[in-house]
Specification:
alpha+beta; Aminopeptidase; five-stranded mixed beta sheet; binds coenzyme A; GNAT_dom; Acyl-CoA N-acyltransferase; Bact_Acetyltransf
């Protein structure tokens, strides 16, 4: 097990995409959807190099976060920590770094989405001080329908 001093947060690289997809498949609670294919991920990481982050050890990924700034808001996706490493502060570390990097790009407000049946994520984000919005509904448009 890595001690805190032994890990660092790195920028994800486009060639991490396949390993990230494999990693997320083993994480319950993560909503895998459209955009979670190697090509789309590589595009996202190429557009948002400073805000797509990983923590890894010699054996592979321990945690990930994908964040992006659209010029108005920051968005955070796929914050995930390997089940064997949860509740050790890795999630908080990745989230805080993503927030910092988004702020550096000029984002003053950030949003994220979690599935309604993911109480762990809700507890985590509430603990981090995020506001659970009840005044907004999410509408989506799918070009492939
Ligand atoms: C959400 C997630 C990223 C948190 O990562 P983590 O490394 O375990 O979280 P941390 O150790 O940094 O937790 C920080 C604090 O958040 C809260 N928290 C974290 N997990 C929690 C849980 N299962 N239940 C209640 N509170 C929790 C705690 O207050 C914790 O501090 P503490 O351990 O000192 O009490 C991780 O549970 C995960 O990967 N979940 C599956 C993927 C997912 O749902 N991602 C979010 C939606 S995209």
């Amino acid at each position: 097990m890595l001690a805190h001093k032994d890990y660092k947060v790195d920028q994800a690289r486009p060639d991490d995409a396949a390993a990230m997809l494999h990693f997320w498949q083993g994480i319950p609670g993560l909503g895998i959807g459209q955009g979670d294919d190697e090509e789309s991920l590589q595009l996202f990481m190429a557009r948002n190099p400073s805000t797509c982050l990983v923590i890894r050890d010699a054996e592979g990924l321990i945690g990930t976060v994908l964040a992006g700034f659209d010029g108005r808001r920051g968005y955070i996706y796929h914050l995930a920590v390997h089940q064997d490493y949860q509740r050790k502060g890795y999630g908080q570390t990745l989230l805080n770094r993503a927030i910092l990097e988004l702020q550096t790009l000029g984002a003053r407000k950030m949003h994220l989405f979690i599935l309604r049946d993911n109480p762990t994520a809700a507890a985590f984000y509430e603990r981090q001080g995020w506001q659970n919005r009840h005044d907004i509904q999410v509408f989506s448009w799918d070009t492939g329908r």
